[in-house]
Amino acid sequence: MDNQVRVSRSLFAFSIFYGGMVCIAGVLGNKQVALGPLSALGPLVGLGPLAVEAGIFAFLLLVVVSSAVAELHGRTIATRLVQIGFVPLIVSILLSVIVLSVPAAADMEPARRDAFALMMGGTPRIWLGGIVAYGISQTLNVTIFAALKGREGGGLLWLRAGIASVLSQIVDTLLFVTIAFAGVFPIGELLLGQMIAKVLLSAILVPPLIYVFVGLGRRLDRG
Fold first, then answer.
1. How high is the pLDDT of residue 1?
2. Distances in whole angstroms, Cα of residue 217 to Cα of each of 14, 38, 167, 174
3. Which of 47, 90, 123, 161 has a CA 20 to 30 Å removed from the CA of 146?
4. More confident residue, 71 or 27
């Protein structure tokens, strides 16, 4: 008899989605976005208007998906999903390096060529910071979420997801900004501004989204 491992529909779908978000987060991060009314909180603490790199939206979806997988399938499976996420992350970086090193076609518009190089380029420290911050913060998110579930049981899903997301985003910001930019320029204001912005977005977006993904996962598995 052949030994077959059955993968649930929710885990299969979430894994594909997770891999896509890992790859797109770095590309989206090239754009800084204002936070609307939340931007005004920056001047209240001596900073400029709050802004955040757009990659945070993909990254928060990673947080939500890994938390949903932990809720539906357990901490071990969710941690494994985070570990597998290193594959598309590292491969996408390597492909970017290769493509950037290959000469552009002679008839490619200079504006498009330069824009592509600007968008896809990065320093080794930025790439390293992204890899380290991803691995530690996502693992921390799953660990905290699962630990809170063990203590509180199956209730308070929104609170468990929100706490895990906020704490993991603080660690993510500390690691990435420090590794990528420490010594290049003063990072104090950047750290504080990014932490405030990411904590606010985590607190606002993650609690409702976790219900959407957990509900979707249960529906997929029932089907």
1. 42
2. 8, 32, 25, 32
3. 90
4. 71
